[in-house]
Amino acid sequence: MFRPRKGVLIILAFFAIYVIWGSTYMLNKIAVSELPPFKLASIRFVTAGLLIFVIARLMGTSIAITKRQLLNTAIFISHFW
Hints:
Layout: H1 3-34, H2 37-59, H3 67-78
């Protein structure tokens, strides 16, 4: 009974994939010519982190970080500087 609705959702999912995936290539072409590589990478990682944070909050998932995890991350990063 729900086949027509499921078909519409599949078509919308394909449309979303084409728009999101297609716009990625266009934005990368613009960004590579306008921004330095490390700034571009940092923008991408910060954006991805914020998106993951928002999705986790909407789903009600706890993303607490312990002091030990934070310390291990700081030690790991300090090895590269």
